[in-house]
């Protein structure tokens, strides 16, 4: 079933998944704070990622680098010179747009193709974009005119100042992606950890972009989480091609196994040659069918030895790898699976949302809102509910069960005394199991366990509750 974005946004606020940032001050445009349940989903995704990549695979380690970095890092990465979007204004209504996105949308409508992306280091063909806008009479989405100003460049990085003594301040940037923190630590990792190529370094953290056209709830925001991996391989075409293909497969699987997104809404798309950033020999996007259209969730790029070579040039440090078996020294090449965590949380919320008609015990047709999160991603795993809130023994028994389960799982204790309301609330936040303690429980130690999706209930011994 299809649901509007407004439905998702209002549910997110009403049920504690995500709130407007700085809400009591009238919001800071497009900023979103994760509420208690959004925070839990984030933690669950991170945990699943850590378990699979860092704990189980054995060829990936992780780190947590700084948001503020030596400004030279941003020169080396190309973000100072190239991390900009070409902006055009509609001459009639004065609305401002990213030229590449305007064209991308008009092409998507016509031929399902995209124009080259604007990534750090890439030369933007701004003149070509301008010529295209005029030649194809691309329309302003606001007023439908097709007259455009020349593109202006705009750097997406947030700049701030470091230092406390006037005159000794230094311009510094909030990182626009987490990847460079990995590259600048490459030598530290080689020197301190027992790693052998191929291996990867993963990082989860905040990134900041002064986006020109933020929107669609948490899809494009100015402050967001990324989950990036840099996977270092030998400079050999056969080797990197194999690694790239493996990462395409792994990434597909992880969207389904880590975020539990329905496969039919995911789209895996390899970039055409003309779409690639100049340093990249292969790029693969994972996209999702959002309520407003298709959008990118992850990009997987083969970035050659571009990043490490840039850092060798700018830092003057030797970042080569020595193979302990062959003695060969070389600058490793890199496959970069780069995934948005904020977008993953949003996608999980959209994908899970459902409204379902059912007939209640009195034969009346009802609608229930249910978030069909996979149980591993659901913010709350069990709700424990005493049927009668005034019955002290019942409340005590429910409380004991809650205490026991909450040692291993996020649980909620709900003694509101209205079982129907409790179920509705737990369905909406996606709790897979509700445990109810009733009169019979006090006699024989059994409880009812209700499963969210089927709404089926069965009676089991309280000590037999498993996840
Ligand atoms: P887009 O084309 O949507 O601007 P991008 O290609 O610039 O994205 P990358 O630089 O490849 O994005 O960043 C990797 C991932 O980080 C993206 O796939 C996306 O999930 C996430 N991401 C990028 N920008 C934002 C943003 N402004 N808000 C939320 N997530 C973002």
What does this 3D model show about the protein?
- This protein is α+β, with helices and mostly antiparallel strands and 467 residues long.
- It folds into 3 domains: 5-72 and 176-349, 2-Layer Sandwich (BirA Bifunctional Protein, domain 2), CATH 3.30.930; 85-154, Herpes Virus-1, CATH 3.30.40; 380-464, Rossmann fold (3-Layer(aba) Sandwich).
- The chain contains 14 helices and 23 strands.
- It has helices at 5-14, 36-57, 71-77, 79-82, 99-111, 126-135, 179-183, 186-192, 237-257, 306-315, 341-352, 392-405, 419-429, 439-444, and strands at 18-20, 32-34, 60-62, 84-89, 96-98, 152-155, 159-162, 170-173, 199-208, 223-233, 266-270, 282-290, 293-302, 321-322, 329-330, 333-340, 353-359, 365-371, 382-386, 411-413, 433-437, 446-451, 457-461.
- The strands form 7 sheets. Strands 3-9-10-16-13-12-11 form a 7-stranded mixed beta sheet, with helices on both faces. It has a 5-stranded mixed beta sheet with strand order 20-19-21-22-23, sandwiched between helices.
- A hairpin with a 7-residue loop joins strand 7 (159-162) and strand 8.
- The longest helix has 22 residues, at 36-57.
- It is globular, with a radius of gyration of 26 Å.
- The two termini are 29 Å apart.
- The relative contact order is 0.11.
- Bound molecules: adenosine-5'-triphosphate (ATP).
- Adenosine-5'-triphosphate binds at residues 117, 177, 209, 211, 220-221, 224, 226, 296-299, 338-340, 342-343.
